Amino acid sequence: MSQTGKIQVFTGEGKGKTTAAVGAAVRAIGRGRKVLMIQFLKAPESSGEQMAAVALDGQFTIKPMGRKGFIYKRNCEPLDQVMAESALEEARFQVVNGDYDVVILDEINVAVHLGLVQVGDLLGLIDSKPEKLELILTGRYAHPAVIERADSVIEMKKIKHHFDAGVPAREGIEY
Predict the structure, then answer these.
(1) What residue ranges define each of the domains in the chain, with the CATH number in brackets?
(2) Angle subtended at Cα 131 by Cα 9 and Cα 104, rounded to the nearest 5 degrees
């Protein structure tokens, strides 16, 4: 990878932020790059992207570092704080380690919004990014300082969604 890596943010109220990051991962893998996704707020064996990564045979590593269930449906608990801090430490290590060409911090924006990760800590991680590393940050509620620091920000906007009609998330489609 010879070009300069960028900082991309996928945010907004609409569906597709993690899916867009996975799409970027698949493109990078197709070009021989190694990709890591650290999932803030998602538990092991809870999402389709985790299962798909196994099929990519070591080119795409996903480290889910949250607990099962949606955090917005429960109050944040001390365990959520500990898990988010652990995920942030892993992210710091992996960003500077150099083993990956692309690092995705899935749901990091929500972790910041909920106060599980301090925005200053995320900005420090961004500042430590090696020049060639592509860093992708996903999740609703991207902090204005993160948006300012990013090279590219895509906002997903919901126009209409079947969730609003009471249709629950479907395995293999929404998760």
Answers:
(1) 7-156 (3.40.50.300)
(2) 35
Residue-wise pLDDT tens digits, 129-153: 999 999 999 999 999 999 999 999 9
Nearest to 132 by CA among 95, 153, 101: 101
d(C-alpha 47, C-alpha 53), whole Å: 10
pLDDT digits (tens, 9 = 90+) for 47-106: 778 777 777 777 788 888 888 766 655 577 888 999 999 999 999 999 999 999 999 999
Contacts of 83 (CB under 8 A, 6+ apart): 65, 66, 67
For the entire predicted model, the pTM comes to 0.90
- The angle at the Cα of 43, spanning 158 to 172, to the nearest 5 degrees, equals 55
CA separation, residue 45 to residues 12, 17, 50, 80, 134 (Å): 25, 19, 7, 18, 26
Round to whole Å and give the CA distance between 105 and 103: 7
